[in-house]
Amino acid sequence: MRLTRILAILLVVATIVLSACSSTASPATSQAPTQDEPTSETTQTPSTTQTTPTTTEPAEAESTTDTTPATTTQELKVYYIDVGQGDSILVDYGQTEMLIDGGDRSPGVLSYIDTYVDGALEVMVATHPHADHIGGLIAVLQQFEVKEIWHNGDSSPSNTYAEFMSAVQTEGAVVNVGKRGDRIVVGDLSFTVLSPASLSGSTNNNSLVLAFSFGDIDFLFTGDAERQAEAAMLISSVAPVPDVEILKVGHHGSNTASSEDFIGATKPEVAIYMAGAGNSYGHPHQETLTTLDSIGAEIYGTDVHGTVVVTTDGETYDLQLERQASPVKPDIATPPPTTTIPLPAASTATNVKITKILYDGLVYRTESDEYVEITNLGSEPVDLKGWVIKDISEGYPSLTFPSYVLQPSKTVRVYTNEIHPEYGGFSFRSGRAVWNNSSPDTAVLYNAQGQEVSRKSY
Ligand SMILES: [Zn+2]
Asked: How far is CA 99 from CA 124, 144, 147, 316, in A?
């Protein structure tokens, strides 16, 4: 089964190469229309793909939907571009292109999309103002004529956001703020905004979420929308959550997104998450992979498969993978790391405890706002000299305290990256996120004798 699947994918790639070499203008590959299959729900997944020469038979449009071109005379391609830890998706339909996010500034998507964008870029969508989504859009605005820009109306104090908005203003494009129920019409294509209905205080949950149908093939693009946004979408009657063939998994496969209810409602045949290999957040999280796997989705990730391209004629679809590998499966073999570490002996127990770990995920990469708190719950001052606080899930970072007397009922913070003297002025100086990237993510406090005195998991 696994071997057939890989062979099928290799066949697709071989056909693409051959077709590209023949320099015809026709799309690279197509699945043979399967006449005896009644509905789109039986669309072939890549495992059953048969590569055949492109047929000229156009897909019939459904009369019940106005989101589909009258006749799909050409194939549509959706590129889930490998931009490391970030999102960038290009929808390409003939002369019409739409770019959803642009990854971070580096590596950017300029050179990649240059191959596919004919003339102007019709529509640019910035799902939300985090740097791993809008950073790469700045160069695109500088290099391409962009006719229309959609964003969610949210702002950010970051330099990246300021430069992005400055580039948007310089561009002179039509600028729209998307809200639930809006339609983004691009040539013959129409995208429905499912979220947000209104902005909340959560940058990720404010992400623009777009549903799109091409014939019988339905796509959902979720940005970094998390469970809060998913729950709101599920109870909305304005723009109902569709079941889809292809899902861009929310928030890089984090367990803060992809609730069982949301995945159960969208029922994707193919789920594509976008994450950087070895990213510090631990994306994709096992919980998400398990949820997707449990409904039978085939899971692909840009960290494993590189850029993933979905090609559809409106009736069937196939996938091309930049790097050949089996679909991603949840890892059920790894025991939780906590079982291997002995609990502290009673004699080492003190009244100094790890009382809080804060991770809000709002500051990309460095997480200057995340921290771990240590509190003296006893009645005697304790000198922390030689004590160590460590992330044992990854084995680093760790901080050895200098002489620092923690008074009774007082708390000291150890920040991930910055120093805030008002809270004791300690920092791992990590340069990257520490918490919420393992499951569980566990901090341990050791005394000067190296004995564990407290632990807390995020
Ligand atoms: Zn993101």
From this structure: 5, 12, 12, 23
